[in-house]
Structures are given as C-alpha cells and as structure tokens.
Amino acid sequence: MLTQESESHSPPQRPPPLIDQQPFEPPLADLPTNASTAPSRARRVDQSAFRRRLQPGLCPDPTEASQIRETLTARFRNENWAGAGRLYVDPRLPEGAHLPLLHYLQQAERETIAQLGLDPEPPDVFAYFDKELLVAAACTNRNVVAYYDGALHVVLDREDVQASVVHEYAHHALMSHGILGPAWAQEGIAMLIAREAWWLDPARLGEVRDNPMPLEVMEQSIPYTLRPEQSVLFYVQAASMVACMARGNGAGLRGLMDALGASASAAQGDGSYDPSTILDPSAWQGCIDGLP
After folding, report:
1. Which residues contact 254 (CB under 8 A, 6 or more apart)?
2. Most buried residue, 27, 113, 241, 246, by most Cβ within 10 Å?
3. In what helix (H) or strand (E) does residue 88 lie, and over which residues does it extend?
4. Does residue 162 come out as left (phi exceeding 0), alpha (psi in the -120 to 50 range) or beta?
C-alpha cells in the first residue's frame, strides 16, 4: 500500500461526488513496546491476519465496503483491460485518462515476471479521480493513495501513479501465489519491485537502524492500521530489510522468496520461516549504512 508524503498538490476543480464520501474510521494502532527484537530460529507467522487484505476495502467487517464497491462498479466506466480482469474508471475522469494506466499495468506485469518469476491472472482495477473517494470507500488512513484488496485501487491525479500501480500489482502477484506474510516481506518486496527511492532518506534510515521496530511488529502489522508517522518508519524498515536480505543471499528477490517458501507453502494455515538463515540482525543494521 502506498501513502501520500507531506507535499501539497493543486488538484483540478472537483466535480460532484459519486457517493457519500464519509471515510470509514479504522482503528489506528500504536506499536507494542515490549516485543523482543531477537529472532528465534523458527518463527511461525499467523497468516489469518493477512487475509483481511483480501476483503473489500481492507475492512474487518466488509459489509459496508462491499455495498460501496457495488455502487462504484455500477457507476464507473467499464473499460477493456486484459483477460478476465476488469478496469473501472471514475466517470469524473476524462475519456482516455485510463490509457497511461494500461501502460503502467503492462509494466507491472513485466516487472513481476522479471524480478519474481510470477505471472498471475490480471486483477480488477479501480481508477479514481481523487484520493477523497478512494479513502471514503476503504478502511485505511487518510494518507493512502493506492491499495490492494483482491482488486487494485489507485488515484490517477498524482505524479507517482506508475510506482503506485507497480507496487500494488506486486502485492497482487505475491498474494495470488499464496505469499501473504510476513508483513515486512510483503511490503518491502513491493517497494523494491516498484523501484521506490523515498525510503532511502538518510535520517529515516538512521532512525530505523538505531531504533528498529520489533520483529513481531514487522511480521504481523498491517501498515495502514498504524499511525501515519509509525507507518512511514515501518515502510522504511521493511524496504531496508528486503534490500539487505536480497543483497546478502546472492540470488536477489527470488532468493528471498525461496527462503520464505515454508511460509508461502503454508499460506492456508500458519507459515514459518527462519530469519537467521536470511540475515543476521547485526548484519542488517550494518548494511543500512551501505545503502545508496
């Protein structure tokens, strides 16, 4: 999931809303303070928490979000996409506004095949005119500009649309192949596939190096439920963990996926993996200083 940085934009004149845009109010979690940072050799990751990511709007109770989804499906333009996938376009967007999105989706397909060896069936895609409608139809914090819940949702009025599409498509590829967690791997892999660079800010890297979030948090947290400032640090730590682990195993992201294979093969129940076979925590903290 991608979140909006603190910069300001001058949006175009807004047409009338399509639905009553009163955003859901998801609970924003505080990070636990008493979890251990030291990994045990065999860690079991409960996959059930991640199945919420496949419910409409990412909601614990998807009933209302499902109803809103039906409204959007009925009112959005239905454009050709690929195979069984459908593309729903906000009618406030001009004709042809979705054409660059098709290019980004094709790029996302190529990236997931090249970097992960995964080629899932295309997802349904919802293209929004503005962030207000996207967050009104989901249980996310208000900074979210794209997310994946079994379908790909993205706002088209931003300069970083391409990265958003590739990031969320990577989630689709991973989840379609049974890789739901751990959370740090799901988010970090998506960020690297999308070639995001914002997390390489030295101050943020220094903060997670010196005060890393506990491994339990990185395994189980769903970032959109964290408070915005905590969510940002979660993404920074996740991306740095994946970058260092992929560098350390010599086989890149595919090697990391192989190391997480036990978790993926047990996606219908509990997954397990051994962090010590991927990267020693002290090696990760040292690796951060060498990141570009």
Report:
1. 115, 116, 117
2. 241
3. strand 85-89
4. alpha
274, exposed or middle or buried, with CB in 10 Å at 0-12, 13-18, 19+? Answer: middle
Q: What is the CATH code for 34-288?
A: 3.40.30.160
Averaged over 162-188, what is the pLDDT? 92
Q: What angle do CA 117, 233, 157 make, to 5 degrees?
A: 70
Domain ranges of the chain: 34-288
| Cβ atoms 89, 133 nearer than 8 A | no
Three-class DSSP category at 157:
coil
pLDDT digits (tens, 9 = 90+) for 247-275: 876 678 988 887 776 444 444 444 566 66
83: left (phi over 0), alpha (psi -120 to 50) or beta: left
The DSSP element (H or E) to which 218 belongs, if any, is helix 215-220
CA distances from 182 to 49, 98, 129, 188, 264 (A): 10, 33, 32, 10, 10
> Whole-model pTM?
0.82
